[in-house]
Each structure stands twice: as structure tokens, then as C-alpha cells.
């Protein structure tokens, strides 16, 4: 259950904080952060969007040929907006209660900008809930503020419902005790096509190298530094009796470096 102060904030989340999000500018972001991480070769996987908000991702995935997509959100305000925008299969529900309703039925669980809304004491419980929703071998896709970014406070303190942010190391740490394997962490760089987006990516490449350089000097690690404001994490629910494995960053660096 959410605490009282969060419940009050969620009850007016659209009017009091987030507003109605514009759809078109967010399409490249959803393609980069979710679409490319969906399991290849799987016909019509059952996808659950946890913290679905106004249902934008659900509509996007259905437009891209994924029909078995549903969503839950704890905010009645958000769910009402999703239904108003003609989003199918959306319901108001608490993550923990929803995960306890029955056996796992999901091939993919997506949680964009969700896990930072819980406190440290709830971390294992949150990932256990994701695990209970997924069939063995199912994929978890997360996006969350990045504690290794020099701008992490912008997101952590930008929403009073936020409790905790993560790094690649802490995500690998919690995955290891909740039955997830093959953990991978990706930076959330500028996405999209067009001249303006190409210029943004070029400038960010320069800025990113300047941010990473001191970390390389201090740690001696040449690779594996994710410094974007957000990060995306993917993980796989371990098959029965399969021991959790240490995850990998995209370039092969361990999620839990020594």
C-alpha cells in the first residue's frame, strides 16, 4: 500500500504535477527505451505496463503490432485520463496487490519511471512483485533516474513521490536476490530523427565524454560508465532452479564491477 502522503499526491497527479503529456514528441523515446528491448521472435507477447499513466506506451505498442498489452496504475487520476484517451485494458491497481492475484501471466513487464517512487525498504518487495508477474524467462524493462548522473537531483527531487534512485551497481544488486538474470543497463541518450535530434546527439557525445573522463581517471575503468539523467535496465526472470547470473552492461562490463 502507498503511504498517505503519496496517495494524496497521486490522487491529483495529472492536474497537480504531470499534466497531459504530448504524444508525438515521446514516440522516439518509447521506441528507444522499450520497443528495441522487446524479445525478438516472440509472437504477440503478453505485455504489462506497470505505472501506465495516461496509457501512451500501450497505445504506442498496439500501433506497432503488439495486441496483448495492458496496464495498471495506482493513480485514479491517471487511469481516468488513459480511459478518456481510449486506452484499452487499463485499470487502477496497487502493484503488490495485483501481483498477488494469481499465477504469472506476463511475458514482458515494463515499468517506466516507476521504481523511484518506492522507498529503500520496499526495493526487494517491488522486484519480487515484478518476478511474480512474469513467467520464467520473461523480460523486465525498467527506466529510472540514474544515481550516477551529475544531474540526478533534477529527477530525484523533481517529484515529491520519489523515494530512491539507482545506479547500474544497485540494480544488479537487487536483481541478484530477486531471481533475475542477464541484467543489462543502457544510457538514455537523445532519441529521434531529424537535424535537431542529430545535433543534440552530437553535442551530447561531446558532453558525455567530458563527464566520463574524470571517472575513467579515478577508477581506471575505460568502459561501463552510464551518466545520462535516466537509464534503462533490462533483466530476465530466471528459469526454474537457474541460479542468478551477474548482469552485463552493453559493452560487456559487469553490472557489479569490482
In short:
The protein has 258 residues and is of the alpha/beta class. It contains ten helices and seven strands.
Q: Classify the beta-strand content into a percent band.
A: 15-25%
Radius of gyration: 18 Å
Across the major sheet, the strand order is: 3-2-1-4-5-7-6
Q: Based on DSSP secondary structure assignment, what is the total number of beta strands?
A: 7
Low-confidence spans: 243-254
List the secondary-structure elements in sequence, H or E: HHHEHEHEHEHEHHEHE
Distance between the termini: 36 Å
Structural notes for this entry:
This protein is an alpha/beta fold. It has helices at residues 4-11, 13-18, 27-33, 56-63, 76-84, 95-99, 123-133, 152-156, 168-177, 195-219, and strands at 47-50, 69-73, 90-92, 106-112, 134-145, 180-187, 230-237. It has a seven-stranded mixed sheet with strand order 3-2-1-4-5-7-6, sandwiched between helices. Residues 243-254 have low confidence and may be disordered.
Amino acid at each position: 500500500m502507498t503511504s498517505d502522503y503519496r496517495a494524496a499526491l497521486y490522487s491529483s497527479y495529472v492536474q497537480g504535477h504531470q499534466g497531459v503529456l504530448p504524444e508525438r514528441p515521446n514516440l522516439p523515446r518509447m521506441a528507444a527505451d522499450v520497443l528495441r528491448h522487446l524479445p525478438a521472435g516472440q509472437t504477440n507477447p503478453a505485455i504489462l505496463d506497470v505505472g501506465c499513466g495516461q496509457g501512451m506506451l500501450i497505445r504506442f505498442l498496439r500501433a506497432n503490432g503488439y495486441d496483448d498489452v495492458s496496464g495498471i496504475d495506482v493513480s485514479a487520476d491517471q487511469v481516468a485520463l488513459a480511459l478518456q484517451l481510449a486506452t484499452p485494458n487499463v485499470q487502477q491497481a496497487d502493484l503488490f496487490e495485483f501481483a498477488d492475484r494469481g499465477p504469472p501471466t506476463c511475458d514482458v513487464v515494463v515499468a517506466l519511471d516507476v521504481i523511484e517512487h518506492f522507498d529503500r525498504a520496499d526495493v526487494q518487495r517491488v522486484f519480487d512483485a515484478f518476478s511474480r508477474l512474469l513467467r520464467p524467462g520473461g523480460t523486465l524493462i525498467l527506466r529510472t533516474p540514474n544515481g550516477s548522473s551529475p544531474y540526478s537531483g533534477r529527477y530525484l527531487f523533481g517529484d515529491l513521490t520519489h523515494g530512491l534512485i539507482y545506479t547500474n551497481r544497485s540494480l544488479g544488486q537487487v536483481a541478484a536476490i530477486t531471481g533475475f538474470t542477464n541484467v543489462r543497463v543502457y544510457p538514455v541518450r537523445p532519441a529521434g530523427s531529424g537535424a535537431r535530434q542529430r545535433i543534440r546527439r552530437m553535442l551530447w557525445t561531446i558532453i558525455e565524454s567530458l563527464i566520463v573522463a574524470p571517472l575513467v581517471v579515478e577508477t581506471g575503468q575505460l568502459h561501463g560508465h552510464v551518466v545520462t539523467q535516466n537509464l534503462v535496465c533490462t533483466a530476465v526472470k530466471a528459469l526454474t532452479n537457474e541460479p542468478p547470473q551477474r548482469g552485463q552492461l552493453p559493452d560487456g562490463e559487469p553490472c557489479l564491477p569490482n
